[in-house]
Amino acid sequence: MKPKIAVFSLTSCEGCSLAILELENQLLDILGAVEIVNFREAMTERDCDIDIGFVDGAVSTPTDVEEIKEMREHCKALVAIGACACQGGINSLKNHQNEDDYRSYVYGDGAKHFPTIKAQPISAFVEVEYELPGCPMVKEEFLALVKAVLSGQQWALPQTSVCVECKKQGNLCLYEKGIICLGPVTLAGCGAICPTFGSKCEGCRGLASDEALQAASINLREQYDIPLENILADLRFYGAYQEKSLP
Ligand code: SF4
Ligand code: SF4
Ligand code: SF4
What pTM did the predictor assign? Predict the structure, then answer.
């Protein structure tokens, strides 16, 4: 019998679910080996016996809390896909605002009809077997994870920072142009796509390992006289800063 996989969404733009559909031919290869039983973006059938459940979106409403617990109950393995599910993502910007202010800004007079809670990663509520960070997640990592799980192999995220990938691309560091980039404190795996195309890294993949942060702390201070704390605060944009304290 083929393993059953499902894709769910909580509070999100569902961009990470759509990224799976964008795999096209590679997705067709996977479909030969699995059965998709619940994919809101692609089909309407429901099934309650799932081997791997992929979830995008943050837990940001009381309904999300109920749904993620239900998903956990029905899935042997849960995979958080994207910054929203892994860290709270851009939803967590509201965590730094006055609740009455952002609720009336978004919902106006109808705010009382839309209950909300602090945006949090799904791991704050249930056990999660794997995380695929990024906004959106990296499609190649999704493929690699699915193949590894289906073949019983180990799978793990890289532990280095985006700077390591950036240097491999031969990019001139943006700090040399006076631009503050979050690459030194951000988990690698995206191929340093933003600095490669001239934009600073904004930390969508979350915090790098403690070891990488310690190296970043030394390099930033020695080369640019910037304390690590100054750039870590910018990681709030995707919810990573509140997840972990300084090494
Ligand atoms: S991580 Fe980004 S692309 Fe994925 S669901 Fe959240 S906002 Fe959308
Ligand atoms: S700080 Fe940014 S631009 Fe500089 S090496 Fe790291 S990722 Fe690249
Ligand atoms: S370079 Fe930074 S912001 Fe851009 S995709 Fe990679 S981790 Fe995200």
Answer: 0.91
